[in-house]
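[agent] plan:
  1. take the single chain provided in the ticket
  2. run structure prediction with default settings
  3. attach structure tokens to the ticket
  4. add a short note for the reviewer (M.T.)
[agent] executing step 1
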Amino acid sequence: MTRRLARAFTHLFALLAFAWSGAALAEVQIHFHSFNGSVLFGRYPHTFIVLDGTVDATGEAVNENYGFTARSVTAAATRDWVEHLVEAEPEKYISRTNRHFSITLTDEQYYAIIREVRRWSMEPGKRYSLSERNCIHFVGEMARVLGLRVEYPEDMLRRPKRWLNHITALNPQLGAEPI
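[agent] step 2 finished; step 3 output follows
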């Protein structure tokens, strides 16, 4: 009888451990990325966020990314306010970008990020300015939503990798090193 009882407890413990580990996997992470840019590939320096994982409350799978840019890349975008666009990066580019740091989100934080992305996306008019409201400002607002310290030094407003390294250094609680 003791052997059966021990086996039953072992099975119960294994079942609880499996259920507990499944719950631990139900989380969404946000990753902060930069792209160095390349004139050869027609890509300019850029920063964006990646969200992946599972929403705990609903079990919804998440695999999204968002960046902020000018709707049309023209000479006007370098000097004037122009139409904006929140867009997703093609999957093939993400693996070639710099991941600076990641944060595990609560469901509430995930939904707050999505609300902020939608707010930026749905703003009317010309809301993109290379020097005053670009991809760095967009990603900075996502970081602020999560309670991170954010600054926008003027000499970094067109240097996403350097800027995200700066944000990493401002927030030692991230446990990340600048890259």
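[agent] step 4 note for reviewer: The longest helix spans residues 2-25.
[agent] ticket updated
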